[in-house]
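Hi R.,

Here's the chain you asked about this morning:
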Amino acid sequence: MYIDLNKLYSDKRTGVDKSTSDKTDPRTEFQRDFDRIIFSSAFRRLQNKTQVFPLPGSVFVHNRLTHSLEVASVGRSLGTQIGEFIIKEYEKDLTNESKDFYKNNLHNVISSACLCHDIGNPAFGHSGEDAIATYFKKNENELKVLFSKPQWEDLINFEGNANAIRILTHQQKGKSKGGLRLTYSTLSAIAKYPCESIGKDKDFIHRKKFGFFQSEKKTFIDIADNTQMIKDDSTPLVYFRHPFVWLVEAADDICYNIIDYEDAHRLKIVEHQKCVDQLIYLIECIGNNDINRVKRVLDGITDKNERISYLRAKSINSLITQAKEIYQTNFENILMGKHKKSLFDEISETCDGLNGIIEFSGEYIYNHRSVVEIENAGYNVMYELLSHFIPPILQEKSELTQADKKAIRLIPPSFNYDTDDSYDKVLGVLEYVSGMTDNYAAELYKRIRGIKIGMRI
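And the predicted structure, written out as tokens:
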């Protein structure tokens, strides 16, 4: 199969006829994506969603918003370098328009996708996802009969990646058609798992999870058709990853592995000299930085946090360079959907310095007591909120109690879909609950449980 590099991108937008595009705007279509995400309420809410550590007061650690901004920065670097590579290696195959895209806009697409890669994650991260999925599994006897098999699989395997596509493309009640109306290029670049839930298969990188709900299936097909995504299977519907996805994933992997380690140092979970030694070992192991110069500069810095910040920057730079080289080496296989491992995993296979950080993080960071505590609390909060809203929203109107009616009144009108379809009703509740910040979800939980009572405007 021949992949046309001129058709990997599209400035078509969800909910918008291309002919209605604003030709007076000096920004490119792909720059506009970045701005739309930055100014969206869904993006702003990431500032109160936990990255790893609960906010510990006076010590700064990252939240989902700062993480997303940093991932976008790394993604921009990768997009710029890969755009230059594509123009150099495939110039004869590119139209003038495509040369302009790869030179001036691929980095905008990658950075935009990086900005919104976590936008579908519910409050409390993976424990929030688990709570949503578990709620439906535990109530299977009562609920499963209300949904088709694919719809039920969506619910019992609730996935933040699929939720991101819904948030970014779905028309909420009373709001604009097409959601944020992003370009198909940006949307294809966040689809790490471009398959429906009944197509999940952990043995394949593009099917480990799923990337769109049944409600967005038609939208996703349109995105795939307009960005030359290769179909792996039709029943269930599965695509191979779009080539841009690998860069977004690499930017995310690089940031959270290195920056979570830096946060652990700030919180004194990792001792200073151990952190210094491990980051220097990582830079040495990758080998594309002048390690002697790095050590000389480090010797002139006395502030402990600044020393780690410097090594973090050098580590990220080394990983960007290595990820770029792996991407370039495997570009033909990536285009054809034949590449099998993430760029980050390929780096870790040959770099003991990186594996040391991964192993330490797994044992001492992601299983730190404060992290486990908030995951447990978050699971209970999210489960309780679903228990409060799902039964009333699915109840026949004639059988609603006063308590049921009061519960429904707490759901904002934009999430309370006036339909007889149980799937649409439930997805409305999930939109509301998954969109909550950690603080808001915890506050609402306290109020509906009677733990906290009082007037709130």
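Residues 64-90 form the longest helix (27 residues).

Let me know if you need anything else.
M.
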